[in-house]
């Protein structure tokens, strides 16, 4: 810890001392844990993390939008520094993380984004609707007559992985092989794993890094359509703007972003909609309500609870000076529950008029480039499940098993049950 750029040396307040983004209370309800901070100490230094923590909507939004005072360069750094053994294991795979869209600064960021964004534009993503719906239907067919399912294992882990690979441009015959390497990066970037667990995670990261390079090489040879093939075209046209390392990082990080975050966002939505039976039944009766319900679920329990920036200059926020060079934790989940922006934010309201003001996809120049795809997948999955399993209910007393990490937020299990004889649509 470097006292010159942090709050080390200042006595920690009660709120700062009790803040534990790896603990049970945070996993169950991050926004509730930070309610007192939003009201009394909206910016505080966490000695546990060596980060300044920002909790109010307006401040999180400002950090996202101001690219002159705040750098995105630390967005993908492990929040728990890697030990020597984990670093050595990554080196065995020649792992070479480099800047991608989420952790690079101007002026190169916007130059790259403009060249790489077209395949993920809403009008392009919309062309995948039929294929995604067929995919979702085929997975539902496999369990709809069974009467029980774990929606994570049986649907939500698989479908976004396959869609992510399709969008990245991975050929169909490689999808089945590649999706088994789409490991959970949440613990690598956002967790507090033991040294042994770090080595295990590093090995998985290394395997996916190696396969990502192989997939890029194949696309270079054989061509294709999608996000990475488009980037390969840019690489050939302007190799300084998009080099080989950038392509490999794109394949690796792009799929993780398209996969795990969408899995978690949809799982969170289903957990809370099924817990609030009136809302679920409204959606079953009127599918036109689903798009706004998606936005409200993203606000209510985002799959990415926080993100990071680095202060480039001394910055005063809410009367607190964050020194230049400091690392900053922007708690999106807390901002999405800011009482000054959202009425009764602790309530899931599928009719909320300003639900789309949420911060789940970031803001400004670094707003999530994959947001149209995530929205489309969530809408289709909700449409198909409300149509085919309106009588589905959560299994009582289950442990949702949230992974203990600071940001990537979603249940590991989501067990449901229903009476197959009451199914309105056959498999």
From TrEMBL:
The keyword Iron applies. Keywords: Heme, Iron, Metal-binding, Monooxygenase, Oxidoreductase. PROSITE patterns: CYTOCHROME_P450. Gene3D superfamilies: Cytochrome P450. The keyword Mitochondrion does not apply. It holds the Pfam family p450. It comes from the Bacteria. Belongs to the cytochrome P450 family. This is Cytochrome P450. It comes from Saccharopolyspora oryzae.
């Amino acid at each position: 810890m470097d006292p010159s750029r942090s709050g080390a040396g200042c006595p920690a307040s009660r709120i700062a001392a009790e803040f534990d983004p790896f603990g049970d209370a945070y996993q169950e309800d991050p926004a509730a844990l930070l309610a007192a901070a939003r009201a009394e100490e909206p910016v505080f230094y966490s000695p546990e993390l060596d980060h300044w923590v920002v909790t109010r909507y307006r401040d999180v939004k400002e950090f996202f939008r101001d690219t002159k005072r705040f750098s995105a360069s630390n967005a993908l750094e492990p929040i728990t520094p890697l030990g020597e053994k984990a670093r050595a294991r990554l080196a065995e795979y020649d792992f070479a993380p480099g800047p991608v869209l989420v952790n690079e600064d101007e002026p190169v960021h916007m130059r790259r984004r403009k060249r790489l964004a077209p395949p993920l534009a809403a009008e392009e993503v919309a062309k995948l609707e039929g294929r995604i719906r067929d995919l979702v239907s085929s997975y539902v067919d496999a369990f709809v007559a069974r009467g029980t399912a774990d929606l994570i294992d049986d649907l939500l882990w698989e479908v976004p992985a396959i869609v992510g690979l399709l969008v990245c441009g991975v050929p169909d015959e490689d999808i089945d092989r590649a999706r088994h390497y789409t490991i959970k990066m949440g613990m690598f970037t956002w967790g507090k794993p033991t040294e042994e667990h770090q080595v295990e995670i590093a090995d998985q990261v290394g395997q996916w890094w190696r396969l990502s390079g192989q997939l890029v090489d194949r696309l270079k040879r054989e061509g294709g359509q999608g996000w990475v093939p488009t980037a390969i075209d840019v690489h050939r046209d302007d190799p300084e703007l998009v080099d080989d390392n950038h392509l490999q990082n794109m394949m690796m990080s792009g799929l993780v972003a398209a996969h795990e975050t969408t899995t978690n966002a949809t799982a969170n939505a289903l957990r809370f909609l099924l817990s609030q039976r009136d809302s679920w039944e409204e959606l079953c009766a009127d599918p036109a309500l689903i798009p706004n319900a998606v936005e409200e679920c993203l606000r209510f329990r985002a799959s990415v609870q926080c993100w990071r920036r680095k202060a480039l200059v001394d910055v005063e926020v809410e009367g607190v000076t964050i020194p230049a060079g400091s690392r900053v934790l922007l708690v999106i989940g807390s901002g999405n529950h800011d009482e000054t922006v959202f009425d009764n934010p602790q309530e899931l309201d599928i009719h909320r008029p300003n639900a789309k003001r949420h911060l789940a996809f970031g803001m400004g120049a670094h707003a999530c480039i994959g947001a149209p795809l995530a929205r489309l997948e969530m809408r289709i999955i909700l449409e198909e499940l409300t149509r085919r399993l309106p009588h589905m209910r959560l299994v009582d007393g289950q442990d949702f098993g949230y992974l203990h990490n600071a940001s990537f937020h979603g249940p590991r299990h989501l067990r449901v049950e229903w009476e197959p004889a009451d199914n309105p649509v056959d498999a």
